[in-house]
Amino acid sequence: LPIVSLIFTLLSYKKIKCKQATIPESIKKGDNLSLNIKIENESIFFCPFASIKLNEQQGITYKHKPRGAFSINPKNSVLADFDVIFNYRGYYTVGIDKLEIFDFLRIFKFKRKINDKQTICVYPQIHELLMPSSIMNQEQKESNKFYIIENDNSDVFDLRNYNEHDNMKKIHWKLSSKSDELIVKKYASYERTQSLIALDLQ
């Protein structure tokens, strides 16, 4: 009986084909990838036990793994559907690593490497930076403030009367000539604000 089981398994094993559906070229980190694999039995013999081993790679999580073993009727096929989650950005190879076929008595096992893997690029997630309107309004007010700068020749911020500690270069001679007192120019510039953006590149 083991010999008969072995012969039938060998005859069906040569006619078992695996085909993986085309996957997209890229995906975002954390998104699910739906992977579909079709296993066909092109022989006229019943395949009692077949299983597929997926390509294992660090950063890949298989949310729904295919069942351990399944049977395939002659001239028929089965579908294996499962989700793949990518935990990190980068390039990954997705697909079947090998196919395993067992005989009726599960005494003999035959393995075959499958060269139907595909490469996918995983990009980082894009997060919109949201800020409460109250904070945005406050930031806008702060960014529009004027600050007095002593040795700057930018826009004139204000005018005031001269005192003994003022630099003579700051005197507004044209206006001073029209009044009885010396007028001094006060210079100013806009405040420069900075923002810090942190990116998670893992």
The percent of residues in helical segments reads: 10-25%
SS element count, helices: 3
Q: What is the makeup of the main sheet? A: 4 strands, antiparallel
Encode the helix/strand succession as letters. Answer: HEEEEEEEEEEEHEEHE
Q: Termini separation (Å)?
A: 55 Å
Characterise the protein shown here.
By secondary structure, the chain is mostly beta strands. It contains three helices and 14 strands. It has helices at 2-13, 133-143, 173-176, and strands at residues 16-20, 26-28, 32-41, 47-54, 60-62, 70-72, 76-86, 90-94, 96-102, 109-113, 118-123, 146-148, 156-161, 183-190. The strands form four sheets. A four-stranded antiparallel beta sheet has the order 1-3-7-5, with no helix packed on it. Strands 6-4-9-10 form a four-stranded antiparallel beta sheet. Strands 2-11-8 form a three-stranded mixed beta sheet, with no helix packed on it.
